[in-house]
């Protein structure tokens, strides 16, 4: 049962990464155009907003500039945080050796850097250093409940079953977040 639960968590984690990739890299591109991008033969030029390498510039813009639609603000600020919450939540549940704060922060930052760099290199969007910070914050927010639950259940020697239960909870949370955002 425990191995089955871990395999299920790994499958859910893979699905999460595929969904995250779709929403970060291919949010405005059809499946046919995705294949053309993967073969390095895009059908036409895509407009990519300018890149941002200045910390807090985009965050400040969304928080304090009055003429930006509220939905755009929420999608960009909250969406960047929420998109990485499952990473921080599921990573230590699947890989028990990764149950350290600095490891989860590094993994969140690294995955975010991978996506942001990919947006810049493949012209699928813009590189934004603020997205790196918000995504890493999301990983941290996802990790904290796992860490506190882990401490509680390790002291009671029930951590293996707890990893499976927390993982299934994370998958449910991911499904709800995806469904709510795109209803």
- How does the major sheet shape up? none
What's the domain count?
1
Oligomer classification:
single chain
Low-confidence stretches: none
**Global geometry:** globular
Mean pLDDT: 81
Q: In angstroms, what separates the terminal alpha carbons? A: 34 Å
Quickly give the structural class: mainly alpha
Question: Could you characterize the architecture of this molecule?
Answer:
The chain is mostly helical. It has one domain. The protein has helices at 2-25, 31-38, 57-64, 70-82, 85-94, 101-121, 129-155, 159-181. The longest helix is centred in the C-terminal third of the chain and has 27 residues, at 129-155. The protein is globular. The two termini are 34 Å apart. The model has no long low-confidence stretch (mean pLDDT 81).
Provide a concise account of the structure shown.
By secondary structure, the chain is mainly α.
């Amino acid at each position: 049962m425990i191995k089955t639960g871990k395999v299920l968590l790994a499958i859910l984690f893979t699905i999460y990464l595929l969904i995250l990739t779709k929403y970060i890299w291919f949010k405005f591109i059809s499946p046919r155009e995705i294949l053309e991008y993967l073969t390095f033969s895009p059908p036409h030029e895509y407009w990519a907003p300018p890149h941002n390498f200045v910390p807090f510039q985009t965050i400040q813009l969304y928080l304090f500039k009055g003429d930006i639609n509220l939905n755009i603000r929420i999608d960009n600020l909250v969406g960047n945080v929420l998109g990485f919450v499952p990473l921080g939540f599921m990573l230590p549940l699947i890989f028990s050796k990764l149950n350290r704060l600095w490891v989860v922060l590094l993994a969140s930052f690294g995955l975010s850097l991978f996506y942001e760099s990919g947006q810049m290199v493949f012209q699928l969007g813009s590189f934004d250093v603020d997205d790196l910070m918000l995504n890493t914050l999301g990983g941290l927010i996802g990790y904290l409940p796992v860490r506190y639950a882990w401490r509680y259940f390790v002291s009671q020697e029930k951590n293996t079953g707890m990893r499976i239960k927390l993982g299934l909870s994370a998958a449910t949370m991911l499904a709800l977040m995806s469904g709510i955002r795109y209803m």
